[in-house]
């Protein structure tokens, strides 16, 4: 009888093809799975592009369960290790150089910091989780599997709003093509788009636009201006003044159609548009994203003849960035919506298996839940990239509104380092031990800046001559991690991602949505309602004399 070994190259027969991978047969009754993430580092749109039943292919064994006669197999590792294929002609796509886990520039395991990278060994996701506190997730597996089933089969509490779970796999391509073509026509016609919305109706788009384009974009996208997210007369006055002599269009976004901040701002924008372009000109420049059939904004759009886009019935605001809610402004800003949806789909496929050995979204959900159970009251999401500030805001709404109820939940807070090390750093290091940090760590540098030598070395920084800012940033990150986790005793979770582009943004937001759904259910709350938000509105309406 053949004794298999991890790392061994084996020729296998494909016996089944599923959306998440291909099943294979080995000798001696062994069966194996080539998970979609083990085929290629490139996006695998369809398993059928690579395998068909009956093919013989060479693969590498990456996990072995002798008792069950089961193996996990990898095509991409073999490709990179040996560049050998039994039937290269089978593969329409040529696998490219694979980042093996050991090459992934994660934080190095460090005895002092005791970084836990154990879970990464099995992680099939493009995102990898590390922690500074050793925690064993295994006792949560049954609960996680059952919650995942509830979300997938829409049997959990709040199931009417679980449309986002399958969305990357099931969205209506024709509808998305219409959104893209309308946005492209706006982009080629007008200079500025005013996004008029609040909360989930605007944060996702703003997060994407700032994270991907940067804060001083020099691209072909429209300039994006935000209104409808505040009652501030100073801010509103300034935006309206700014728009007065500019060529602008408006995307008003409100699922309910009755959100006061948005509705008031939209009145003012309409007034200005009509004044500048007349009633018909104004109509051409307005797109209303709202409910398919009902609500005040839908009625107004019908009355005025505005172009409309639909907020899916079964997706709440904070889960809606990948729908027309987010995609119209995102495409107006010149970002590739297809790539974003591909990224989300890749994440969806990577998370098919709820196993805590491989599912990084659920690993993250359980880690933060365990820290909450240990008494931590707040989670600080930290990015080292200033253009991620609005991503942090999106994340805060996602987790805050989904989990903070029934007297439970972590306070989601955020920071941009190293900027905020000069303000909040003191509290994190030395203050009350109420929080843990989650570091969003971008591992690929896109644009770097080199430090030059100067003749006068008064600042004594010539020691860094020839080095780059990303080198300095890396040392700042590692030094801070050590300071906070070791000396400061603040637990850290590290969420490693590759780079920030449309594909990775789609991947990351879907990753956090899945983590958030899991995490809220672990806490025993319905992630999709927000009863607490209504109370300020009720009081405000009373004070305003608004009766309905
Ligand atoms: O996530 C949510 O549900 C909220 O943030 C809403 O998106 C926000 O209150 C705006 O609501 P609406 O789209 O109805 O104007």
Which second-level CATH architecture of the largest domain applies?
3-Layer(aba) Sandwich
Estimate the strand proportion: 15-25%
Number of domains: 3
CATH class of the largest domain: Alpha Beta
What is the CATH topology classification name of the largest domain?
Answer: Rossmann fold
Radius of gyration: 25 Å
**Structural class of the secondary structure composition?**
alpha/beta
Q: CATH superfamily of the largest domain, called what?
A: Glucose-6-phosphate isomerase like protein, domain 1
Name the strands of the widest sheet in spatial order.
1-2-3-5-4
The span between the termini is 77 Å
Largest sheet: 5 strands, mixed, barrel
The total count of strands amounts to 15
Write the layout of secondary structure elements.
Elements: E1 9-18, E2 21-25, E3 31-35, E4 56-65, E5 70-74, H1 76-82, E6 128-131, H2 141-152, H3 163-170, H4 173-189, E7 192-196, H5 203-213, E8 223-227, H6 233-244, E9 248-253, H7 260-284, E10 286-290, H8 296-304, E11 307-310, H9 324-332, H10 337-350, H11 360-373, E12 378-383, H12 389-403, E13 411-416, H13 425-430, E14 435-442, H14 469-487, E15 492-497, H15 502-522, H16 533-544
Parallel strand pairs: 3-5, 7-8, 7-9, 9-10, 10-11, 12-13, 12-14, 14-15
Antiparallel strand pairs: 1-2, 1-4, 2-3, 4-5, 6-15
Helix pairs in contact: 2-15, 3-10, 4-9, 5-9, 5-12, 10-15, 11-15, 12-15
Question: How is this structure best summarized?
Answer:
The chain is of the alpha/beta class and 548 residues long. The protein is built from 16 helices and 15 strands.
